[in-house]
Every structure is written in structure tokens, then in C-alpha cells.
Amino acid sequence: ATAQLFFDEALRLQPDFPKAQYNRANVRLSSGDPDGALADCDAALAGVRAEDERQMMRLSRSTMLMELGRPGDGWDDYEARLHPQFADATLFQSRGEPWTPDADLSGKTLLVFGEQGLGDEIMFANLLPDVVEALGPEGKLCLATEGRLTPLFQRSFPGALVGAHATFDVGGRSVRLAPFMENETGPDFWAPMGSLLRRFRRSVSDFPARGDGYLRPNPKRVAHWREELAAAPAGLKVGLLWKSALMNSARRRYFSAFEAWRPVLETPGITFVNLQYGEVEDEIAQAREAFGVSLWTPPGIDLKQDLDDVAALTCALDLTLGFPNATVNLAGACGASAWITSAPGAWPRLGAEHYPWYPQMRVFKADRLGDWAPMLQAMGEALRQAPDGLRRL
């Protein structure tokens, strides 16, 4: 709100200042005003001259369109991330032709690159069953994923060739390759995974309504974790995440202090399972000493590196709670029961009241950045009312 005052004053003094219009657009989006954000962003685009700034603004515009429930238009603008003059563009290299939305995939070989962060790579994979169907029985899907996701994706898409992508810094630009394809024929086409959304997920109605997931955890590891959880303290077993590993000044505004989770953590009859990787000793001690709650840490798992096992663990839990990160996305993609927190302007909701990517997931929204208490109080109350034995995989 304070930032908007300054942008308002800057635009009063110079109404045709594109950078101020663009910055105010982002403030408005985070304040829950996507219509005002889009109006400001369009005004900025009309006046901007530098191509790198134009593509930066297009990328932000894509999130505004998504928040307004126009994902098809949003995905079109989302292509700005690949423009060669966009400062943070990742350049993809492969044999074959770049895929376009009008390409006939039947009987073809398509190489799909995972991109962005882990959470997006997992979330965007929602469209892969549709891609497999479009390729048909004579076609072939090749998947270049983050290395920690390779076993999970190979199990989930057994007919695909799955390997790890590799990213290099070349002259200050990120270049992504699929080294496992070196000895393979083709592909006919290649595409970053997010680009395929332009064809397969142009509206919320294009998302499958079933919530049984599209990724398949290791059933033996699910059974293993159910045995481990049975030996944990009594009560519903609820996994918990509360912070990002990257907590710089830009990201910190999207996360509450651990203290705000008190209404959730003090829910009786729950054994909370720590799913938070990284340095968590202070929060675990705070939960024990200030809230009287002991967080149970699952034994023998690296919560950051063993993502295939993390996926199995979320499916053994009664419920996973947290913010939009890789672990919560894994739970959703595997069809596990999960509740997610959502900040104003969160584009993955695509303007819906739920998460279209994961129909079984329940969303708790904050009305304003920094005002987390009502959202977490609502989550705590819902947890108190949850029936014994939340749905398991």
C-alpha cells in the first residue's frame, strides 16, 4: 500500500511514465486488483520502447490475465520468457523443430523440457497425459526433467524416455540441453513444458476434474511410510511446510512468520510431520516450547533430495499442509490429500476458487499480503472439523 502511494505520485507528475505504470501494475496485482493491474500494464506496454522491458512486462501481464480467469491469453503472453531479448530467458537446444500449437503430434517423437522451478515442472506435468494421447500409439514422448524427478516421471509415464536435463551458463545466458538424447533418433519436435499449455490448457475447463493425480509414487515406499507413520505418536498424520529455502526480500513478503501457524499447530488430535527441508531447528524448538507441539521428523529421508520418496511419504500421510512449493505440488500431483495457502495475485489458481491442477486440493486464500492470520485461523478451524481418517491414496 505504501509503494502504491509513491507510484501514484510519480504518475501524477508524469502520467506517461511506463516503468511506473508497470510497477504499479504489479503492486495492484499483489493487492488483489487484477483489473487495475492489467490496465496499468497495458498502458505501460503502449509506451515502452526497450524490447527487454517489453518482454518483462508481457511476462507479468500473463499472470494478470491468469488471475482474471483468462489462461489461454495468459499462456500466449507467457511465451515472453523465451524471447531472446528477455534478460532471464533460458535457451533450449535440441535437434528437431520447435513445437507450435498447430503441429500434428500423431505418430511423432516429442521432446519436452521441464523448466522454471521444481514446483512448476511438477504442476505443468498435468498436461502430459493429454500429450501422450495426442502422440498416439505410434508416437513417442521424451521427457527432460530435473534429475531428482526422473524416477517419479519414468514410473508415471512408462512408455516415455525420461532423463535429466542439464543447464549451462554460456556467455551469461542459461542454455538447457537433454544429454540423454544424444544417441537417440530425432525428435521431430521439442518444446519447453510450459509452452504446451497454449494448446492443452487454454481454459479451466480443459483441466481433468478427477483428483487421483497424474504422477505415480513408488507403492513399496508408500507402504513403508505407512508403517513408519503407524509407529509415530497417535492421531491424524499431517505433513507441514511453512517457508521457502529462498527467503530473500522479494520472496519474504509471501510468507508468514512461524508464529502465525499457531492456530493450525494447536489443533488437538494431530501428529504434525515435518516436511520442511533446510534449517528448521529454531521452528521445531519454537513449536515445542511456545505451542507445546512436537513436530515428528520422518527418519531416513532427505526432504530436499529424495523427491521420489517425498512423493510416497505425502501419499502415506492423511494430509499435507503448506504453501506452493515442490513438496505440496508433489502431493497434489500424486492425488494425495493436500491443503494449500494462497497469496493475493497467485496466478496458478487461474482465477478459480480452487487449484485446477489438483482438483482434490483445498485452497485457503489471504486477502492481503502480510495479513496471514485470518487465512491460517480458517485452516486451523477446518482442521478441527476434519473427519477422522482423511482420504488416503
Side by side, the strands of the main sheet go 2-8-3-4-5
The mean pLDDT is: 93
The rough form would be described as globular
Percent helix among the residues? 25-40%
Structure description:
The chain is an alpha/beta fold and 393 residues long. 39% of the residues lie in helices and 15% in strands. The protein contains 16 helices and 13 strands. The protein has helices spanning 2-13, 18-30, 34-47, 51-67, 71-78, 118-124, 128-135, 150-156, 197-200, 219-230, 249-252, 262-265, 281-291, 307-316, 326-333, 373-385, and strands at residues 90-92, 97-98, 109-113, 140-145, 161-164, 166-170, 173-177, 189-192, 236-240, 270-274, 319-322, 338-342, 362-365. The strands form three sheets. Strands 2-8-3-4-5 form a five-stranded parallel sheet, covered by helices on one side. The chain has a five-stranded parallel sheet with strand order 10-9-11-12-13, with helices on both faces. α15 (326-333) links the parallel β11 and β12 (338-342). The protein starts with a helix and ends in an 8-residue tail after the last helix.
